[in-house]
Amino acid sequence: MRLFLFIFKRDMLLAIRRRRELANPLVFFIMVVSMFPLGVTPDHAFLAELSAGVIWVTALLAALMSMDSMFRSDYDDGSLEQLLLMPGSKVVLIGAKIAAHWVSIGLPLVIIAPLMSFLLFLPSQALPSLIITLLISTPILSLLGAVGVALTLSLRGGGVLSSLLTLPFYVPVLIFSTMAINAAAVNQPVSGYYALLAAFLIVSILLVPFAVVAALRVSYN
Amino acid sequence: MFTFLHKFASPQYFYSWSASWQKWASIIAALLMSVGLYYSLLNSPADYQQGETVRIMYVHVPAAWLSMFGYMVMASAAIVTLIWRIKVAEIMIAQCAVIGASFTALALITGMLWGKPMWGAYWVWDARLTSELVLLFLYFGVIALSGAFDDERAGARAAAILTLVGIVNIPIIHYSVEWWNTLHQGPTVSKFDSPSAPPSMLVPLLVMALAFKAYFFAVLFKRARAELLLRERNTSWVKALLKETV
C-alpha cells in the first residue's frame, strides 16, 4: 500500500508539472465531437440519436491518444527500469501508475463529457448514465491500453501499433456503454449494463497488471 | 519426461519429425478435401429454401470453425512459449496467426457471397459477422506485433502475451456483440443429440471440416519448417543439412 501511494503521488506530481500535456486529449475530445455536426448534419433529432455513440467513440480515441504518456517518458529516461528494480510488488507498482494515469487523463474526460452531451443534444434523462458509464469504463480503457503500450514500448513508432492492438479489446466497453445510454434515453432499465461494465472492470483490475508486468519484461528483454 | 519433451521440441528434432507429419497431413487433407468437395458440390441435396447457394456453407462453416480453432492452437503455442520458451512454439505463434487470419478472411468473404442472395446485402452488422471481424483484427494485431521487433524471440513473447490477453477477451467480445445485434441463424450442428441439419448435409460438412483442419496442420508445419530454417540458419545442423541437399 505504501508503494502504491508513493508511486501514485510521484506520477500525479509529474502529471501536474506537465499540465499542458494533460489538456491535449481533452481539447482533442472537444474538437472531434464538434466535427460531427459539421460533417453529418446539424439536425437536432438526428444528432441526439447519434450522440451516445459519437461521444463514446471519441472518448475511446482520446484515451488511446493519451495512452503513450503512461510509460513513455519514464521509459525514455530510464526511471521505469529503476522502478521495476525496486523491491516490492511490481503488480502494485504498475497498478499505481495506471491509477495515476486514469486520474490525470480519464477523470477529466468524464468531467467534460456533460459539455459534449449539450453539443450533441443528448436527451437529458440519459446524461446520468453517460457519466456513470464513463466513470466505470474509463479505468478499463486505461488498464487495457496499458497492455498495448507496454508491449510496444521498445519499438519505434509504437504508438500507432499499440492503438491497433488495443482497439479490438475496447469493443465490449463501447457496446455496453452505448447500450446503457441508449436504454436510458428511452427510460429503460440500465442497471444490468452497469453490472456488466463493473464486472469487466473488476476482472481487468485483477488480471491486467500481471499482463503489463509480463509485457514490460519483454520490452526490457 | 521433460527432458524427452525438450529434445522432442528442439529445432533439429522438430525439423526431422515434422517432415513426415507434414506429408501425412497433406495427404489426409487432399483425400478428405476431394471426397468432401465431391459430396458437398455434386452429391448432396440443394436446400429447399436456399437452393444451390447452400453449397457455400461447405466452405464457409469449416473456415469459420478453423478461424477459432487457429486461435486456440495459437494460444496453446503462446502458453508453451511463455512457460518453457521453446523456440518451435515461438515460431508457431506468428505462423498460426497468418493462417488463422486467412481463414477468418475466407469465412468473411464466403459469408458475404452467401449473404448477398440470402439477406440481400453483402454486409450486415450482425453479431457473428462482427465478432469474426474483431477476431480478424486480433489476428492482425498479433501478426503486426510479432513482426515489429528486431529480436524475433522478443517479438514472439510479446505476441504470446497479446494472444493470451485476447483469449480472455474473446468470449467477452463474443457475448457483448451477441447481445448487441443478432441476425445470423443459430447453430445447426453443435446440438449433437438432435442436429437440425439432415445427415446428407451434415456428413459432407464434417468431412470438409476435417479436411480443413488437416490442411491447417499441413500448412502450419510447412510454414514453421521454413521459418525455422531461416531463424536457425547460423547453426551447425542447418549448415550440415544444406550441405547434404546441395
Structure overview:
The complex is a heterodimer of chains A (221) and B (246). Chain A has 221 residues and is an all-alpha fold. Helix content of chain A is 82%, strand content 0%. Chain A is built from ten helices and no strands. Chain A has helices at 2-17, 19-39, 44-67, 72-76, 79-85, 90-119, 127-151, 158-166, 171-185, 191-220. The longest helix of chain A has 30 residues, at 90-119. With 246 residues, chain B is mainly alpha-helical. Chain B has one domain (20-183, 202-245). Chain B has helices at 2-9, 11-41, 57-84, 87-119, 127-148, 152-180, 199-231, 236-245. In chain B, α3 (57-84) crosses α6 (152-180) and α5 (127-148) packs antiparallel against α6. Chain B is globular and about 60 Å long. In chain B, 37% of the residues are buried. The model of chain B has no long low-confidence stretch (mean pLDDT 87). The A-B interface holds A 147, 151-152, 154-155, 158, 161, 164-165, 167-169, 171-172, 175-176, 179, 200, 203, 207, 211, 214-215, 218-219, 221 and B 82, 134, 137-138, 140-141, 144-145, 148-149, 151, 154, 157-158, 161-162, 164-166, 168-169, 172-173, 176-177, 179-180.
Helix-strand blueprint:
The complex is a heterodimer of chains A (221) and B (246).
Chain A: H1 2-17, H2 19-39, H3 44-67, H4 72-76, H5 79-85, H6 90-119, H7 127-151, H8 158-166, H9 171-185, H10 191-220
Helix pairs in contact in A: 1-6, 2-3, 2-6, 3-6, 3-7, 3-9, 6-7, 6-10, 7-8, 7-9, 7-10, 9-10
Chain B: H1 2-9, H2 11-41, H3 57-84, H4 87-119, H5 127-148, H6 152-180, H7 199-231, H8 236-245
Helix pairs in contact in B: 2-7, 3-4, 3-6, 3-7, 4-5, 4-6, 4-7, 5-6
Number of helices of chain B: 8
Residues in helix, % of chain A: over 70%
Low-confidence stretches of chain B: none
Strand content of chain A: under 5%
Average pLDDT value of chain A?
92
- The count of DSSP E runs of length 2 or more, i.e. the number of strands of chain B, is 0
Alpha-beta classification of chain B: mainly alpha
Rg value of chain A: 18 Å
Structural Rg of chain B = 20 Å
Classify the beta-strand content of chain B into a percent band.
under 5%
Judging from the principal axes of the Cα atoms, what is the shape of chain B?
globular
Helix content of chain B: over 70%
Q: How would you sum up the major sheet of chain A?
A: none
Count of helix runs of chain A: 10
Report the end-to-end length of chain A measured between terminal Cα atoms: 28 Å
